[in-house]
Amino acid sequence: MKLHNTFTGQLEEFKPIEDNKVKMYVCGPTVYDNAHLGHARCYITWDVLYRYLKFKGYDVTYCRNVTDVDDKILKKAEAEGKTPEEVSKYWYQKFSESMKKLNNLQPNIEPFATKTLGEMISMNKELIEKGYAYEADGDVYFRVKKFGRYGSLSGQPIDQLESGARIEVGEQKEDPLDFALWKKDPKFGYKSPWGIGRPGWHIECSAMSRKYLGKTIDIHAGGADLIFPHHENEIAQSECANGCKFVNYWLHNGFVTINKEKMSKSLGNFLTIDDLLKNYDSNTIRFFILTNHYRMPIEFSDESLQAAANGVKRMLNAKKTKIDDSVDITKFAEYNSFVEAMDDDLNTSKALAVLFDLASKANKDVPYAYTLLYKLAESLGFKFDKASLSNEELKAKMEEINSELGETYNSIDEIIEKRRSARAEKNWELADKIRIALDNAGIVLKDSKEGTTWELK
Question: Which is deepest, 176, 241, 274, 452, by most CB within 10 Å?
Fold first, then answer.
């Protein structure tokens, strides 16, 4: 498997630090507003990488942080008359719901910045002790020029960076290039050896990554907008504190653009995930994103989303047969073509072409085609029912269930959602009635923390 390493600018063979184990860190959200299509692009991309690594048999530890202390959160809290905790808690919940709607898997570890303050303070103290950082009237800064490799990730020479560097009013830096590790903040801060304050953004990821994944990790991923200064600063502070290489493979996804401009909250040209999901389902959004290579920019338009919706329909409307889990999918040419595409720096557009081929073969009653289509599509995060009923059989089942329930439902998923609502409302009688009706029709429900699925007895 080859991945494009931003640090070297090269396509490199992926070799984890430990055999069969992968430590992966992705910069998570700053929780103060709705997640938008740009976030969807980032987190679907790395969800696919996470899924595919697991599909290949790796034991993956996926850590994605939550920034719940930040200038934007504090500003929103003041504007709304709320505490920063109330703001971050509300928007984290909204973010989590959006990720679930997009069918993104929950990371193994999702640490909050405010719960990792001790580790940040410890790392800052180490940097001060080693001479890489200094305290100035309650602030702590990193000495950029003491780290000779600064600028290596973004490819920016130090003299070029110097020309644009400024010292803002109130800052007491030794050098304009130095960046904050800790900020004095008597109003919203936390106790530290330097007084009441809060962490700088960059130190958060370095501390959380070290705590949960160790000093050197396999993969660090995020949006291309984080290369400088965020990831550049992470490398500097982590390698100076830890005395070793921080990351082996740096991966970055491209922007989503509208009229050739990056989609962002600051430009006001963003579309929220919730708004998109009113018109397009999660499969369509995922398909739209995966049609393009993850490193390339995507130009958003309704036409491109509609084309994606048609592509999803073509794939998921393949003639359904029962999934045969006994089939060794690795022996088929289509599997090898799929793996070859994904092993080539996650070439998802080529992988989708393999799925289209399998959909065509399923429609021609090629025996293994639907099983292979289902399993490969699942590894990319597409949702569709584990088909074990023909359309005619499913229609008959629905008539049987509707008759017993005395209601009209259009799909089993709709019935499952009704049961979920009933349970949430503690209407146990209705929830049990639905489960029994499905059971009588030969359909077994399986509840898990990811949700409820069904299969035939």
Answer: 241
